[in-house]
Amino acid sequence: MCVSHHRPEEYLAVPQTSYFGAVEENRARRVVDALRDRGIDAHMLRAGVDQFGVRVNLHDGRQAEWDTDGTIGLEAQVMQDGDLVGFVPKIEGSEDFDEAQTVDAIARTLYDGPIATERSVAPPPAPALPREGGVFRRFLGGFREQ
Length: 146
Known about the structure:
Layout: H1 20-37, E1 42-48, E2 51-57, E3 62-66, E4 76-80, E5 83-88, H2 99-108, E6 109-110, E7 117-118, H3 137-140
Antiparallel strand pairs: 1-2, 2-3, 3-4, 4-5, 6-7
Helix pairs in contact: 1-2
């Protein structure tokens, strides 16, 4: 039998709010919820350890992956079957966007060409989509949601 000589304070958990990842995870979740409330098929994207973003399904086999590279500012890659087929260049001033401005910028994006453009106004909201996770949302997210 192995006897541990650790002090009890070594077992104290560090609160999730001290990590930038938890804050960004919750922000990404709120942006996804707001986009789904507008009828945009958005999903939480887990790009790696403590890397979160927003994936928007474009319904033609493509997906826009917003902010998964850890850079400052709002930008996206448009993927199809794992291949890069387009991108959204960094939106000027987006490093200072709040969540509502982020949602608006994603909603106004036109993905028609290889380099996406931005509409002057967002299209009217479509019927809301259900939020991801349903009843088990907090359980599936590890109770980290704030």
